[in-house]
Amino acid sequence: MNIFYALSEGRGRLTETNLSAFAAFLLAPNKPHGFSHAFLHAFLTEVARSCGDPERFSAALGHPLLSVEVGLEKKYDGPVSRIVDIEIQLMTGDGDSQQKAHHIVIENKVKAGAAQAQQLAEQFACISEANRDLPTPITVVFLTPPGEAAALCSARSSTPWSSTVAIHTVRRGCAGPAGQKDSCPSWS
């Protein structure tokens, strides 16, 4: 069962904003959903596995003094100002010794035609610039409807990325039209 299909039945309307709010709520371990860190761990483990780096978040997620900050619609200024749908910052340590271990950005699209690979490059540039004094690994995750991976792969293949970013497309569904698999390589 896909809860998002159920929420958009009849007069229901699923928007990027309410989907982002729902996902951010589940990803924040301190929210009253009863999952603690379980949803965050499962999501990041799948992203790491899918982008070919299964240990990508292991050190941070396994740290005894892990704290997580999840934000919605964070604005970054740069050559082109960008608003990030969901931002996750993994922090390790305590007090003065606390440091950012990883910065995860999630761009969420509900409509098939709304996904634009250039948006990811611009967001990455803005976030990199904002964090230039304290370089931190950045992972960008693009959540798109089924069927968009091929177009995004083509557009991203010519985009230069820093070695600190992994681009991965996670689709809401396993197959494209007519049950055909819709896959795309990982970037790191």
Question: Could you characterize the architecture of this molecule?
Answer:
InterPro entries: PDDEXK_4 (IPR029470). There is one protein chain. A five-stranded mixed beta sheet has the order 1-2-3-4-5. The protein contains six helices and five strands, in the order ααααβββαβαβ. The model is unreliable at 155-188 (pLDDT under 50). It is 30% helix and 23% strand.
Give descriptors for this structure.
alpha/beta; PD-(D/E)XK nuclease superfamily protein; PDDEXK_4; five-stranded mixed β-sheet; disordered C terminus
Mean pLDDT reading: 73
Number of helices: 6
Distance between the termini: 32 Å
What would you report as the Rg, rounded to the nearest angstrom?
17 Å
Number of strands: 5
Number of domains: 1
Strand content: 15-25%
Q: Give the H and E element order.
A: HHHHEEEHEHE
C-alpha geometry: globular
Helix content: 25-40%
Spatial order of the strands forming the largest sheet: 1-2-3-4-5
Largest β sheet strand count, sense and barrel closure: 5 strands, mixed
State the oligomer: single chain
Low-confidence segments, ≥5 residues, pLDDT <50? 155-188
SS-based class: alpha/beta
